[in-house]
Design a protein that fits this description.
Layout lengths: L4 E2 L3 E5 L7 H13 L17 H8 L6 E6 L2 E6 L2 E6 L3
Antiparallel strand pairs: 1-2, 2-5, 3-4, 4-5
Length: 90
């Protein structure tokens, strides 16, 4: 995964599906946002919001598919090899 482009409300990354699954890219990016190790990311847990395996099957290797979902206070969008996580505005 290449480094994040950060703003106060958004993080965008490019990732390589052959090296990192889309769901794992989400976990790593959320951990980066929360400034913690991915193994210690307790809240939010991805599997409480979506089926990570299903997302991986939908997105991996298919540049034409875009998947978006909300997790905790974030909006996640996977489109091809691009991952964007935005903070919901209150």
């Amino acid at each position: 995964m290449s480094g994040p482009a950060k703003s106060r409300l958004s993080v965008q990354r490019q990732y390589d599906c052959s090296e990192t699954s889309p769901s794992l890219a989400v976990v790593h990016t959320l951990a980066d946002i929360k400034n913690c190790d991915p193994a210690n990311l307790v809240d939010p847990q991805l599997s409480e919001y979506i089926d990570p395996d299903a997302v991986d099957r939908l997105v991996r290797g298919n540049e034409d598919v875009q998947v978006s979902f909300s997790i905790d206070r974030y909006r996640v969008c996977l489109a091809g090899t691009e991952l964007t996580i935005r903070l919901h505005r209150s």
